[in-house]
Amino acid sequence: MSVTSVRLVEKRCVGCTTCIKRCPTEAIRVRGGKAHILTDLCIDCGMCMQVCKHKAKIAETKTLDEILAMPYRIKIALPPPSLYAQFEGNRNVNRILTALRRIGFDAVFGVARGAEIITEATRRFIAEHPRSNEEGPWISSACPVIVRLIQNRFPSLIENILPLISPMEAAARIAREHFKEKGYRDEEIGVFFITPCPAKVSEVAFPRMVEKSAVTDTVALNEIYYKIRPFIKSITDEEIETLQLSGEEGIRWAHIGGESEGLGLNDILAVDGIDNVIEVLDHLENGLIQRVEFVEANACTGGCLGGPLAVENPFSAETRMKKVLRHNQHPQYNEELMEETTNVASEKILENEDNLHLSSDMQEALRMMAERDALHKVLPKIDCGACGAPTCFAFAADVVRGEAQPEDCIFYLRDRVKEVAQEMVNLSAKMPPSIKQKEDVQNEEE
Questions:
Q1: What is the pTM of this model?
Q2: Structural domain tally of the chain?
Q3: Within a domain: residue 203?
Q4: Domain that holds residue 45
Q5: Would 322 be classed as within a structural domain?
Q6: pLDDT tens per residue across span 386-408
Q7: Which own/partner pairs from 234-241 qualify as long-range (CB within 8 Å, at least 24 positions apart)?
Q8: What is the DSSP letter of 209?
Q9: Same domain, yes or no, for 13 and 109?
Q10: How far apart are CA 26 and CA 192, in angstroms?
């Protein structure tokens, strides 16, 4: 089942074509003057949210008020490492974690601890399962956008995806198990991830690596930022609680290259930005990248620091992250949870979600492909977007699926008008003899 957390705010949409031109999977159409998201193609990268000047795309998350109103005995916040780089002038992770408790969470479990656990698991797994140049490198499974992108556009690389759960999921499992050991029932525990991107929202609702997510729900990082910012400034040094669970290795996952830095491998490729990732995956698929052991790919520029739901731009956040990392070379830990771990192996087999096929029936699909290709040949191939589709090829596919008409293309319509006009001229010269003879007689009398 395909699902997306990105939604259109219809009253804000003016029907421009900016989003359809920037969507990496051609998952948006403009119909009836409004954008429409094709959920079977959307990978929740958030690019449409970032490029829309009218703020017509949003990610559906829970608000803090909604979370605090939920009837859980204990509510646990899962802050990502990217949260720590959002605040100017603060480098103390424990200050931020204390502020999360001040706004209403009963407990805090940093996802950076889950990142450390996944780093160690990745080291062991790659050592035990080396891949040859012919097989290609292992690809990180941490970014759900990249996992969905591979399933949709690069299915031949599915077997290269590291079969490990995400740091978010690992942290949620440990936090949940810890409080179950303290006497809480599972249904009494609410675990809430503070997400920098819409993809994590979908991943919680419909996980791809686990049967059921240990995360209860998500709240946007930008909302939490504004809730805790006043406390960041007002909390005194004496009031700071020791809540941190991880050091530099887990925190640096927030920026691109941070995941692979701790693996101790010689040949690593780290790439960020969805367009750059697509180019790298294309090269991998075609065997143009050799002698690489591990690929760390992140859809957002700068890694999770550049998430659509982050506040600070990724370049300023990167500067702040370096300061946070320097400050945390000798952190104050909450040692109670430091030794706890969990099973991090993926529970599900990833499937090919290549949505380029037009029908599940092979014969029908072949017929529709031939019809699509024939129509594409007569289209202008300038990808103007006036038809509401991002490319002429996508438009041709829409037509054969019955989602558009050939005349929606203004160039095709212009040519058809010319053809019909010429047909009218040709028909006028082919009148029945009886009518033509009558007209000749009238002309002679005149």
A1: 0.88
A2: 3
A3: yes
A4: 6-59
A5: yes
A6: 999 999 999 999 999 999 999 99
A7: 235/95, 235/98, 235/99, 235/102, 239/98, 240/92, 240/94, 240/95, 240/98, 241/94, 241/97, 241/98, 241/101
A8: S
A9: no
A10: 31
